[in-house]
Amino acid sequence: MPKTxxxxxxxxxxxxxxxxxxxxxxxxxxxxxxxxSPELVARYMAEVPAGETRTVPAMRKExxxxxxxxxxxxxxxxFFVRIAAEAALEDMAAGRSASEVTPFWRLIAPDSQMAGKxxxxxxxxxxxxxxxxxxxxx
Length: 138
Hints:
- By secondary structure, the protein is mainly α.
- The protein has one domain (about 5-135): Winged helix-like DNA-binding domain superfamily/Winged helix DNA-binding domain (Arc Repressor Mutant, subunit A, Orthogonal Bundle), CATH 1.10.10.
- Helices cover about 50% and strands about 5% of the residues.
- It is built from 6 helices and 3 strands.
- The protein has a 3-stranded mixed beta sheet.
- α2 (about 40-45) crosses α4 (about 75-95).
- The chain is globular.
- The mean pLDDT is about 95.
């Protein structure tokens, strides 16, 4: 039986900085690459104020700076963003409200490739962003 997104979230390795043996993601051999985790990505999403948005590239730059690395791994970060989002959607399917789950819509653009891969699709993200903007204005 395949793992649920929540199981993938819980079973991930701890964040760490790796020294690269060969070039990857714009980092030369011998350079440092930060590898995040779904939990760290989810915390970042939750720190974005309601009604505001951030981008995955901006998050990656922040993570690299915070952890003293040259860059943050683009491949694993994308996967961790998806794990955090799908785990939140599993929680919502189980009855938790949007205010009780990781607000992934603050990081994933509705028209992005990532949104197209999510089980909720981009329309859900656009709706959540609009609702938060409306609530922030009120």
